[in-house]
Amino acid sequence: MDLLQAKLARWLPLPHNSTAAQDPVPVPQHKRVDVARVRTLLADIMPLLASNKFASIACCRQLQEAVAGTELADEMAQTARLLQEFRFDLVQQRLRQLAAQQGWDSASVDPFTDLAT
User: Fold this and answer.
1) Whole-angstrom Cα distance, residue 50 to residue 66?
2) For residues 66 and 80, what is the distance between their CA atoms, to the nearest angstrom?
3) Contact between 82 and 92 (Cβ < 8 Å)
4) For residue 45, which of 82, 11, 20 has the smallest C-alpha distance?
5) Which of the pair, 10 or 102, is modelled with greater confidence?
6) Residue 45 exposure: Cα atoms within 13 Å on the Cβ side
7) What mean pLDDT is reported for the chain?
8) Which one of 14-18, 20-24, 49-53 scores highest in mean pLDDT?
9) 3-class SS at 20?
């Protein structure tokens, strides 16, 4: 019975009046996003997406690598899945939204201008 209680105590919250030691729950540490690299990759991928180019897949992989270990990794993985389905329009839309949310599109050099050229 003690073994069962010990196992359960590890995963279940302790009552407020309990004096048993509890292992602290590790808080995931995310690395910082290299904004300059991500902005460069966004500037590379957006024209490819606009033209439905398969080369955007390789560029998307680079974006995934750039945000690996950051709080954006999961969102970029979901975006990459859309690209695997050749949803170029949705990927472009999601990347624009992500850039706007992160404030990457408000700097002096806008990677989303002149995409038609």
Assistant:
1) 21
2) 13
3) no
4) 82
5) 102
6) 27
7) 80
8) 49-53
9) coil
